[in-house]
Design goal:
Layout: E1 10-12, E2 19-21, H1 35-40, E3 43-44, E4 53-54, E5 58-59, E6 62-67, E7 70-73, H2 74-83, E8 90-93, E9 106-109, H3 111-120, H4 139-147, H5 152-159, H6 163-170
Helix pairs in contact: 5-6
Length: 181
Amino acid sequence: MLNERGKKYARVCKGCGSRFDARGLGRGNKGHCSERCRFRSKVTVCGPDNCWEWVGSISGGYGTYRYREKTHKAHRVAFAMETGSWPQGVVMHTCDNPKCCNPAHLKIGTHAENMLDMRLKGRARSCPGSSSKMAKLTETDVAQILGNKMSAADVMSLFKIGKSATYSILRRRTWKHVEVA
């Protein structure tokens, strides 16, 4: 198969190594025989039970992928490629790894189920006090801060927290559930 310039249409896929006819695949193909091979070239596959990390572009902690003329979250594209249809609803990670594209770690759910899953696993910012994974203080620390009437400067240096967090505690905007002794 030669074109008008004498070049072959036949190429070798960068993903799977198979030979393919490059005619009609478009300019964004970059040497892959299929959309699946192009997608998989941006994923580190390491066993059926492990997370398959996305190594392409990232936005908001999630992989992004240009698919069918639009940019989508990579895990949604992985789910669509595995099932053969575009997911209706939220694609949830059972592994809690936003970069994971392993179809075995993905499932369809509703927004409410996803938010409940987030709260139950302690990833919600609204988790009270030290039950949040993002907490730097404990309820005992906050009780000590409020009970001793410490200055903001002392709180920031002693507990290694920022100005905003300090004033939120002292003005009782956060950690409201902690009782002052």
